């Protein structure tokens, strides 16, 4: 498995603990230092070119919705085997963007300062754990189903499953 933009390994490590051979890639050495069980590679996703192909490529955390989303999806397509899968997480089209908070374990995650302009969403996500907090402003573009379909076709991928924010892709045959 290849986990592109793995961050601290929140997905890569549990998969590795389940016995999967996972290569976790991120451009932040500080984030990769937190990965405990998966193999790691410090590299920019956009310029990644490995000799290895993977049965599963993960492109999560809405990376496809950034300014270089199609480029990152192209990297995923180049690294999946002919019978493999690419799992993508995107901003869900048609979502009603409102301030709010959810609790996941010990972390409170809130969304505020939301601005919507057509397909462009700007907001700030705040993560709070005990006395510590971190605010991350972001700007992304919503990719609707038609655009996603055209994009994947250009890259030689087909949509196997489309479920809101979750997209399962396979190489076109």
UniProtKB/TrEMBL annotation:
User: What's the short name of a Pfam family annotated to this entry?
Assistant: Methyltransf_25
* Methyltransferase domain: residues covered: 2-80
Keywords of this entry: Methyltransferase, Transferase
GO biological process, alphabetically ordered: methylation
Concerning InterPro entries, the annotation shows: Methyltransf_25, SAM-dependent_MTases_sf
List the Gene Ontology MF annotations in alphabetical order. Answer: methyltransferase activity
Q: What protein name applies here?
A: Methyltransferase domain-containing protein
Which organism's genome codes for this protein? Phycicoccus flavus
């Amino acid at each position: 498995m290849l986990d592109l933009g793995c961050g601290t390994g929140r997905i890569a490590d549990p998969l590795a603990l389940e016995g999967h051979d996972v290569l976790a890639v991120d451009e932040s050495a500080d984030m990769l230092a937190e990965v405990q069980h998966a193999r790691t590679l410090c590299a920019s996703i956009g310029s990644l070119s490995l000799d290895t192909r993977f049965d599963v490529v993960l492109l999560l955390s809405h990376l496809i919705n950034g300014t270089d989303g199609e480029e990152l999806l192209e990297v995923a397509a180049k690294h999946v085997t002919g019978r493999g899968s690419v799992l993508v997480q995107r901003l869900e089209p048609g979502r009603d963007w409102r301030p709010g908070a959810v609790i996941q374990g010990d972390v409170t995650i809130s969304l505020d300062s939301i601005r919507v302009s057509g397909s462009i969403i700007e907001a700030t996500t705040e993560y709070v754990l005990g006395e510590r907090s971190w605010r991350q402003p972001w700007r992304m573009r919503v990719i609707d189903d038609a655009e996603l379909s055209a994009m994947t076709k250009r890259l030689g991928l087909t949509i196997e499953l489309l479920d809101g924010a979750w997209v399962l892709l396979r190489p076109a045959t």
